[in-house]
Structure formats: C-alpha cells, structure tokens
Amino acid sequence: MNPLKAGDNAPMFSLPDQDGEQVNLTDFRGERVLVYFYPKAMTPGCTVQACGLRDNMATLNNAGVQVVGISTDKPEKLSRFAEKELLNFTLLSDEDHQVCEQFGIWGEKKFMGKTYDGIHRTSFLIGTDGKIEKVFDDFKTSNHHEVILSYLNA
Questions:
Q1: FRET label pair with 14: which of 34, 46, 89, 124, CA 20 to 30 Å apart?
Q2: Cβ-count burial of 10 within 10 angstroms (0-12 exposed, 13-18 middle, 19+ buried)?
Q3: Catalytic pick among 35, 46, 119, 132
C-alpha cells in the first residue's frame, strides 16, 4: 500500500453513484472535494462516519468543500445506505477497487484474526487545482468530520 500524498495529482476517475449515474472527478473542477474511502456501507463505523459528514454538510459546503464517499459496494446497496441514513452527498461504487488502488489505499488488512485485502479508511481533500491538498488517515469514525473541519478552520 502506497497512499497518495499532499501535492500529488488526484487520479481522474469515473464511477457509478448510488443512482447508477456516472460521476467524474472532473465534474467538480474548480471546487474543493473531500473524497473519503470507507470499507462497507451500512456497517456501524461507516454509518457513524457518514452521519458525521451529513450533519456537518452545511459547514463543509460553506467552506467550499463538496463530499464524495467511495466504497466497493454495489450502487444498489449505496442507494439503500443513502436513503436509510438520509445522506446529503454522493456515494460512488468502486466494485473492482481500481480507484482505491489509484489512490493507494487498497491493501492487506487484519480483522478478527483474518487477513484480507480491503479499503484502508482514508480521506483526501482535493484542491481546486486537482492536486491533493491534505490526506486524512489519523481519525476515528466518530471524529472524522471534526478532524476535517478543524483543518478547514485552521
């Protein structure tokens, strides 16, 4: 695993959203975008993380930041997740984990004694110039939004 760093160009990507519509990173050109990678929709940690962002969306938008969540879940599951939790941002499906690999956050994980490949929970703030402005990889699901807001307010 070799995650991208601040200053790197963000990989251009196009993925289906929770409604099956293609979303491209270029759709956000000229805006700051928080691209956050999470392991699995509808799990406790991912729900806490998503709801923290949902509840602070106005503050994030006022800071000029759009939010996009990416997991390997199918669009149908993302749709149920967004509906159930009333999420107010886009979720993208990276089923073959190609975008996760481009960002360098796909790799070996251990959980309950098992080793497997998966998404390492990481967020990238992409600047208006398409470069990674900041990488967030040290947070809990419960304070993810606070860490991001703290950076934006600094």
A1: 46
A2: buried
A3: 46
